[in-house]
Write a structure and sequence with these properties.
GO cellular component, one term: cytoplasm
Subcellular location: Cytoplasm
Main location: cytoplasm
Radius of gyration: 20 Å
Helix content: 40-55%
Oligomer: single chain
Shape: elongated
Bound molecules: guanosine-5'-triphosphate, magnesium ion
Keywords: Cytoplasm, GTP-binding, Nucleotide-binding
GO molecular function: GTP binding; GTPase activity
CATH architecture of the largest domain: 3-Layer(aba) Sandwich
Strand order of the largest sheet: 3-2-1-4-6-5
């Protein structure tokens, strides 16, 4: 199942991003902690080669904490300044200033040697749609400056926002990229709500999610949907059992797969299934070969 979403307004946003890049010292990449690999735009690495790089692991409240730690460590080793957060909480985002200053320390030192005394930093906030960029900026500024919403594509244009006297942030519209190199990337982005829900084959998507959950998070299924899920290794059997349990049955007695799929997707996205990550730090290669 191939999922792809790269509407015209994103191509336009990318052009704007390229234009704005020379203006900034640092890139703050907001990613979704539930799937750090899938929620990183691979094009950013090429475009932002010589910038300080900060990676904010957002929605950490919904992700598997041990996996988040492990992912952060591995990105740190690659030169990123990382931090986990729940962008809805002010206290959670307050460490960002320190991180930005650390990441730009060398740059500020170079400026100082050239006689430039200003310590002012400009950073671009980037990320895929619905990952929480605007929510983060609002919590950081301490007021609702940027528009937010629980669907992809809320921010339409780039906007500069001043934080204190030394930092300016550029909020940008979420962008995906023209081709997801692995099928699993499209699936994960669809599951976390970064792709327009209207184009999704929801039953197939949830079939994949159940395949993944029965492999890694069987106990989450049992605690949410009851003992009948115990030991279920087959995704379709699990789906049927959940449908029966939650009365997702059509008039003639057939299972209502659309209804049960919506219910499971809602439970996953809202965290009612527990803290679940869609990627395993050590098994990314293996999982991304999973047949869907
Ligand atoms: N649970 C949880 N929800 C979050 C977090 N951060 C943001 N959200 C929610 O995610 C949704 C999307 O947030 P936005 O800030 O609009 O996302 P965005 O990245 O600006 O999206 P676009 O402008 O569409 O690219 C909103 O419903 C937020 O409340 C978080 O850390 N945890
Ligand atoms: Mg936004």
């Amino acid at each position: 199942m191939k999922i792809q979403w790269y509407p015209g307004h994103m191509a336009k946003a990318k052009r704007k991003m390229k234009e704005d890049l020379p203006l900034v010292d640092a890139i703050i990449e907001v990613i979704d902690s539930r799937c750090p690999n899938s929620s990183r735009n691979p094009e950013i690495d090429i475009l932002a080669k010589d910038k300080a790089r900060i990676m904010l692991f957002n929605k950490a409240d919904l992700a598997d904490p041990a996996r988040t730690k492990s992912f952060m460590e591995s990105f740190r080793k690659q030169g990123f300044y990382t931090m986990e957060m729940d962008a809805r909480s002010r206290s959670s985002v307050k460490g960002v200033s320190k991180l930005v200053m650390e990441s730009c320390a060398e740059l500020l030192e170079r400026k100082k040697q050239k006689g430039i005394l200003s310590q002012s930093i400009k950073a671009m906030v980037l990320g895929i749609p619905n990952v929480g960029k605007s929510t983060f900026i609002n919590a950081y500024v301490g007021k609702a400056t940027a528009k937010t919403g629980n669907k992809p594509g809320v921010t339409k244009g780039a906007q500069w926002i001043k934080i204190g006297k030394d930092l300016q942030l550029l909020d940008t519209p979420g962008i995906t990229w023209p081709k997801f190199e692995r099928e699993i990337v499209g699936l994960n982005l669809a599951l976390i709500g970064s792709i327009n829900d209207e184009i999704l084959p929801i039953e197939e998507l949830i079939f994949y999610l159940l395949k993944y959950l029965t492999r890694y998070y069987g106990s989450a299924l049992v605690s949410r949907y009851g003992e009948t899920l115990q030991g279920k290794e087959d995704a379709l059997e699990a789906m049927d059992a959940i449908a029966v349990k939650r009365a997702c049955i059509k008039k003639g007695g057939d299972i209502d797969y659309t209804k049960v799929s919506r219910l499971i997707l809602d439970d996953f996205r809202s965290g009612r299934l527990g803290r679940i990550s869609l990627e395993h730090p050590m098994k990314w290669e293996e999982d991304s070969q999973m047949e869907v």
